[in-house]
Amino acid sequence: xxxxxxxxxxxxxxxxxxxxxxxxxxxxxxxxxxxxxxxxxxxxxxxxxxxxxxxxxxxxxxxxxxxxxxxxxxxxxxxxxxxxxxxxxxxxxxxxxxxxxxxxxxxxxxxxxxxxxxxxxxxxxxxxxxxxxxxxxxxxxxxxxxxxxxxxxxxxxxxxxxxxxxxxxxxxxxxxxxxxxxxxxxxxxxxxxxxxxxxxxxxxxxxxxxxxxxxxxxxxxxxxxxxxxxxxxxxxxxxxxxxxxxxxxxxxxxxxxxxxxxxxxxxxxxxxxxxxxxxxxxxxxxxxxxxxxxxxxxxxxxxxxxxxxxxxxxxxxxxxxxxxxxxxxxxxxxxxxxxxxxxxxxx
Amino acid sequence: xxxxxxxxxxxxxxxxxxxxxxxxxxxxxxxxxxxxxxxxxxxxxxxxxxxxxxxxxxxxxxxxxxxxxxxxxxxxxxxxxxxxxxxxxxxxxxxxxxxxxxxxxxxxxxxxxxxxxxxxxxxxxxxxxxxxxxxxxxxxxxxxxxxxxxxxxxxxxxxxxxxxxxxxxxxxxxxxxxxxxxxxxxxxxxxxxxxxxxxxxxxxxxxxxxxxxxxxxxxxxxxxxxxxxxxxxxxxxxxxxxxxxxxxxxxxxxxxxxxxxxxxxxxxxxxxxxxxxxxxxxxxxxxxxxxxxxxxxxxxxxxxxxxxxxxxxxxxxxxxxxxxxxxxxxxxxxxxxxxxxxxxxxxxxxxxxxxxxxxxxxxxxxxxxxxxxxxxxxxxxxxxxxxxxxxxxxxxxxxxxxxxxxxxxxxxxxxxxxxxxxxxxxxxxxxxxxxxxxxxxxxxxxxxxxxxxxxxxxxxxxxxxxxxxxxxxxxxxxxxxxxxxxxxxxxxxxxxxxxxxxxxxxxxxxxxxxxxxxxxxxxxxxxxxxxxxxxxxxxxxxxxxxxxxxxxxxxxxxxxxxxxxxxxxxxxxxxxxxxxxxxxx
Lengths: 347, 585
Prior knowledge:
CATH class of the largest domain in chain A: Alpha Beta
Radius of gyration of chain B: 29 Å
Number of domains of chain B: 3
CATH topology of the largest domain in chain B: Rossmann fold
Number of helices of chain A: 14
Number of helices of chain B: 21
Number of strands of chain B: 18
CATH architecture of the largest domain in chain B: 3-Layer(aba) Sandwich
CATH class of the largest domain in chain B: Alpha Beta
Structural class of chain A: alpha/beta
Strand order of the largest sheet of chain A: 4-7-10-1-11
Order of helices and strands of chain A: HEHEHEEHEHEHEHEEEHEHHHHHH
Helix content of chain A: 40-55%
Largest sheet of chain B: 6 strands, mixed
Oligomer: heterodimer
Distance between the termini of chain A: 59 Å
Strand content of chain B: 15-25%
Strand order of the largest sheet of chain B: 15-14-13-16-17-18
Radius of gyration of chain A: 21 Å
CATH architecture of the largest domain in chain A: 3-Layer(aba) Sandwich
Largest interface: A-B, 67 and 76 residues
Number of domains of chain A: 2
Helix content of chain B: 40-55%
């Protein structure tokens, strides 16, 4: 495997980095959508994330990275059987690439062709969705993905479970993953159903100013010159962030959610007219994740405010022509609401 | 070896050949714009000689995905009774230079895979029961034979460091060789030691910005090309000559705008960088002020062949279009009912069974199935070929006929100045409707002397909106020209199997005749003649009267077009939407 560019060495693009970090802290947030033009470092950042993520405990020998400590019903057929506490091993949170040309059988899993040929037996060979369980599934150019693959993805992402019925095989296994999609909106619109699936959405832009560009070139040149040395140079920053994510993951459950926060989240979504409850839930969850990341014991309105644009940007009532002003709309409503709630707090 | 800077147009091409032979995959490759012919053949021959790589493999434009990426080798798999993977072409070419033939015709998925290989130097493959990561570090020479409105995909071009345009080079331009393969070999050793100063890097970054290039990739490539150029000169320091060369080969061909030569770029030259080290080698012959971007650019431009500067503007216009042009292309192919792939599906729900894919899917399972059948029922001898429902693969065609909504906006003085804003508003409303129906949209604007296709058919509403917002107003009303262009579009759409409908926003006051003279009567007559021609096309039309007070002129136009007439003053969102739905078949 080639050496990845360090996550912490990526210049700028703070929105994208924060969204990915938040998703690493709380995988339940529902995925990250990264939209932007060419050359904004979308793919680089996501590949860099893979090298940054902390380790998790998995049942050793399990194809689905089941959590040895999780309650049984949520595990795969093998790990779900009543038995002693299984052996476990630590592994890095997987980041699985879903290449654009993937066939459906490799995505959802299919009969194991090798065992069918050699031993003449029917066995299930897990697909990419199995590999991505408890980790990240990355789809580059998600807007160009074939419809039937998108359908399979949506189905599984919604239920957290992959069901395969084929050749008399009937397999169901957990497939809970953070869906990370990237794409260039100028090359094709994303299907609305898919867009709504993502918890967070970020717009990335090319940095326009010269110093930043020089910085990008200099770092990249240094990286290309000697990748190992470059990674070593950034190792301290990388492990610091990794530790921070690890700590935040462990403490996430203990972060308090004040009632005021829930109320503000609801108000915000109401004011923006977002459809469904998903926006509010994600808003609260991501505020908590951000609080955990900052080592705070409770989520505050400040956290909510910081996350609101990413959470709500793509959930505004569909007005495709207002694309450029989506951020402004969110921002306007937020500032109105927050002034109001400050006043409420004061009185 | 001393390289004398020759001013011949061939020199840059010769340098490019040496640079790609030297740097290979680190700069991605070459976007080679050239018609097929002896010049291009000779240039490729030079690349072969300098890189000592013979033959250079070629990826055909219509390469199937399986061949490109690899998958299961069915023959070997059945023979040996275990899955045997077949390396795809990209994997086979690892560490080599590859040519993409007819790069402007590459399918979207091929482009994607090439981009992945260029980005990561590796490919992850997940198909046919095989999952692997193959190293695929390639340098790509994209032979772009596209003419005016065709070009390789922008995402691919962005990743190819060098851009070379040989469309204007004839066989007489071919000049002496500057390099031998020995020079390239020697440069390989020198390359690691070459340094580039902070000023030069800043200059490159500044120029990228002032040339209107958004992506940082070309700047990176330019920095690498500058260093490689120094190495080829057997120098360890990047000098102005190298920067100028990098500028010509990497940045100027991608320019989206001409920098203002008179005013220097807004950035002051001393960069406010705290950790800036000033001990980098100063450029030699530095009696002059430190390499200032403007001077560099001038130096680079001075070495450009004559006439190239003028081409720049047309080229940049073309580049701007190409970013969706080719994506649109692909949709068009699908429209023609071209098979676009196979998928596992149920043939009883309709669709054409793809026999080959079905057999391929069934083949590996035959021994298992025969054994199963024997176990179940040992009396009847097993059938030789057992195909089950799960094996059935269908060919995918573009099922829905695409619809294109063409907006023809009158931006002339009579209509525009008062009502253009409202007309824009109306178009936006209609665009929203097109979005819901996933239509393609295109935009024609007409004013002064001519009608212009501002936005070729696209699905990107963001672009449509941007184009619309930037639309200026004022001038005469060349209605006939606009209607002729609309008819052109309708014909083209018809050939591609697309259903087109058009929406004309105008006050109907035509005053420019077909021959360009300003004459109300001739203009109106020509417009009605054009309208009669357009009425013969199968496309449906909608005329929205943007006049302050609805005039009979626009209604007459609508009647001649056999289209629907609607006066804007009365048109609110609902009416507009209803009207366009009524106009849709």
